[in-house]
Design a protein that fits this description.
It is globular, with a radius of gyration of 22 Å. It is mainly alpha-helical and 482 residues long. The protein has 20 helices and no strands. It has a single domain, classed as Growth Hormone, Chain: A, CATH 1.20.1250.20. It is found in: Cell inner membrane.
């Protein structure tokens, strides 16, 4: 009856049993946090639909409508490098979950009067508050999913959780096609429908914040992450934070990739209504839902491949396919061009969460701080869509403007090449794949792996084997061998 125990949001930076949670022990907290992935998938999908809706109802240009994306994703660095990251480092994951949900709820309530008065600027301000809430949730949830449970399954865990994000992006456009683009309703009625959606969101997230407060979520500290990095030898020569170049490259790749993903989804409806005959906004929203369905399917497929193929190779293949298939959409029209975007969204699927997981490998005590930089890369979603919108307005063609996300995909591709072919990138990722931490029936240390060259057992790991793995470990100094 853990919910009746005295609750506290304070945490200490000491090693806990959370560093060695088994898959079974981590199921409940992972399931609870996965709900958050659906929430911001739904919110993100809703935003893509509203982008075209406001073009129709308020008579604004494609470039100006991208202000929604700029407000939403522009809030992410403020959260991931500012207030949310400060709370994460000083208090832990659970307080950030509650803080983010409360901000999300407040933003949804603020949206109500802004929609009522048809204020696009006011709604952008509400979206900025929501973006701060969701940025806070992502700052905590992505690294939490990565580090909660056996480290060797981190990429698979975060991709499974992110698949529910994909489901949320499918539900939102379907809702939009039936609620926002009603052929029998005038613009005023459509905007009222949007109001009720945001009121329902506010009620739900406030209730979810209460559930999180009373839920026993194991806290994973910097000491836990330092222990994992030490056990796996993933970062033997720990450098100052400013010299964590792999991390900053991952953040750059996240910026470029996320910018491209958001830009494509934001203008997908514009693309199909312009290039496909007899396609209105309502039908375009349904096509967007189908494309997001391909996105969600790609994540489940990617998880299946990661069971047999190293995640870094799957990542390289998927991102390469994004580049190959977005290129024809620039020149093709009709069903052919739309199909290219469908396939592109399928291969986009695993890129974001895999960059998060690979970028955090071996950061040790810098894990929480470093995760903020990777999540700050989501701000690419505030920068690339306006560029695509401006290019579309200048050429009077959304199809030609797809060259903008193509260029950013190529920039992100540099990280996928490094993580596969540069030893300083590749080795930390591979060493985490061979660790026995959190595996039931296994001791501490790592197992033999030919490609990474990591030894096995506690003797080779250079630590004393601890008894009763999974039990609480006190904060007393550990004895090293050699």
């Amino acid at each position: 009856m853990a919910i009746f125990k005295k609750q506290t949001l304070k945490t200490k930076n000491e090693k806990t049993r959370a560093a060695e949670l088994t898959l079974r022990q981590s199921i409940y907290p992972l399931a609870l946090v996965t709900i958050l992935f659906f929430l911001w998938g739904f919110s993100y999908g809703l935003l893509d639909t509203l982008n075209k809706h406001f073009q129709n109802t308020l008579g604004i240009t494609r470039a100006r409508s991208s202000g929604l994306q700029a407000a939403y994703f522009g809030a992410y660095p403020l959260a991931s490098l500012g207030h949310a990251n400060w709370i994460l480092r000083h208090y832990g994951y659970k307080p950030v979950f509650i803080w983010g949900l409360c901000l999300y709820g407040v933003g949804a309530l603020v949206a109500w009067p802004c929609i009522l008065h048809r204020s696009f600027g006011g709604f952008c301000a509400a979206i900025f508050i929501i973006g701060n809430g969701l940025g806070s949730l992502e700052t905590a949830a992505n690294p939490y999913i990565t580090v909660c449970g056996p480290p060797r399954y981190a990429e698979m865990r975060i991709n499974i959780s992110q698949a529910f994000n994909g489901i949320g992006t499918v539900v939102a456009p379907v809702l939009g096609s039936y609620v926002f683009f009603l052929k029998t309703a005038d613009d005023t009625q459509a905007l009222k429908n949007v109001q009720w959606v945001y009121l329902a969101i506010a009620c739900f997230v406030f209730l979810l914040a209460i559930v999180f407060y009373f839920s026993p979520i194991p806290e994973i500290t910097d000491a836990d992450m330092a222990f994992q990095a030490e056990e796996t030898h993933a970062n033997d020569d720990i450098k100052p934070f400013r010299k964590q170049y792999r991390l900053f490259h991952a953040a750059f790749a996240q910026f470029c990739y996320t910018g491209s993903q958001v830009a494509i989804a934001s203008y997908f409806i514009n693309y199909v209504t312009e290039t496909r005959a007899n396609t209105d906004s309502s039908l375009g929203a349904k096509f967007l839902a189908g494309a997001q369905g391909a996105f969600a399917l790609g994540r489940f497929t990617g998880v299946g491949l990661m069971k047999y193929i190293r995640p870094r190779w799957v990542f390289l293949f998927y991102l390469t396919m994004c580049i190959i298939f977005i290129a024809p959409s620039i020149t093709q029209r009709g069903n052919t061009g739309m199909s290219m975007l469908y396939i592109t969204l399928f291969f986009e699927s695993i890129c974001f969460p895999t960059i998060v997981a690979l970028g955090m490998r071996g950061l040790g005590k810098y894990t929480k701080r470093g995760s903020g930089f990777i999540i700050a890369g989501v701000s690419g979603g505030a920068c690339v869509p306006p560029l695509l919108g401006a290019a579309a307005d200048a050429n009077n063609s959304t199809a030609i403007a797809m060259s903008v996300p193509l260029a950013f995909f190529v920039a992100a591709w540099s990280y996928s090449l490094c993580v596969n072919f540069v030893p300083s990138y590749r080795d930390p990722a591979d060493k985490f794949l061979t660790t026995k931490i959190g595996i039931e029936g296994a001791g501490a240390g790592v197992v033999e792996d030919e490609e990474s060259g990591v030894g096995s057992g506690p003797e080779k790991a250079g630590v004393v084997e601890k008894e009763n793995i999974g039990e609480h470990v006190d904060n007393s100094p550990e004895v090293k061998i050699g």
